[in-house]
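Good day; I would like, with your permission, to put a structural problem before you. The record follows directly beneath this note:
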Amino acid sequence: MSVTIEEAIDWIHGRLPFGTRPGLERVEALLKRVDHPEDKIPTIHIAGTNGKGSTVTYLRCMLEELGLTVGTFTSPYIEQFNERIAINGQGISDKHIIQYVEKYQQLIEEMDQEEQTAGITEFETLTVMALDYFLDQKVDIAIIEVGLGGLLDSTNVVKPMLTAITTIGKDHTEILGDTLEKIAFQKAGIIKENIPVVTGNISVEALAVIDEVAHEKHSTVYHYGKDYQVDYLHPDKSWGEVFHFYGEAGKLPNVKVGLLGRHQVENAAVAIQLFYLYCRTQQFNFKERDVYQGLLKAQWPARMERISTEPLIILDGAHNDHAVRRLAENLKKEFPNREINILFSALATKNVEQMIGLLKKVPNVHLYLTSFDYPRAIELTKMEHFADEKTEIVSLWQFGLGEILEKMSADDLLLVTGSLYFVSQVRELLLNLGGNNE
């Protein structure tokens, strides 16, 4: 008897207790059982501490302008589980999830009987499922986002035609290492022999590690600020950012992205460089129109997303201190004359102290710290010592949200930030309450 979609997703989530277990043995064993789809589809592999999701979206939208069928594997999801595995922005159907779960249940039960392959994780299962689905649907290209690190991440089974590393920051240090150099080495693990790699705005010490690995692999590196460049101009009059792009194909003037923040310009630049290299390797004509139209169409929920104009409400999943630092810079630049109310929560595994410290330094800010319904969410007791005249502890985020909205004046800003899991819960409530009133 067929399982329901709820039962299918519950089964996938049932692999979650096995946690994060770096290594490729289990995923390779499952791939073998489904006849190695990773060998049969062209892929682009993207790693980085932050910016991966936006870069994937920008690149997908430009590739779609070429008329291609583009698969994407991303995490976490914001609105619906299905969006993690998508084709041309359309999440995998419930019917297909059920189909693949029914296919994989017996295979994984068999694997669980063997010591070496027992306990395959949720992310490992989804990685194989995504590759299997993309092969069945005959995508032209699949863009695969790394889950954690790179070298030992389950996505590192793909045979990419291009790779990219967007940013390097201190996150998941308990697994990836406690220095930028160690983290960079893990991210550089996706670099393959003779396969070009595009690097984003990365610090000198981390970039040196990436360059060394690329040299060993005879991989050409295209550096941000050297082999391709941007000239940031200004925020767009309505929403987003405007910049010039310079690369081997020449200058692309007045490029616009619909996402806010200087870091989005950098993410878009990585995507443009990847797009150019893809067009060159596939002998497609590089058309400026494809870049302009693709970037304009790109939307990425919960990344400096304006969900309401009156009052102004922005959602941004700044889920680690590297991302919060960029967020704080954006707030100072974009909203210097507004009172800013921030509703924040994060996972207990993050450097919450530093994240809160960065947010407190933003001028005209009032901070509301809370928790949310998620297994690894930080407990309120861990944040109580931050309370002061500009920082409140909120027992239930729903009440905190209501309190902020009630107090806000027409010129104030509400920012919801922290864990993407938290932001997605708040987003769902806000959309149910009033929809997007842009």
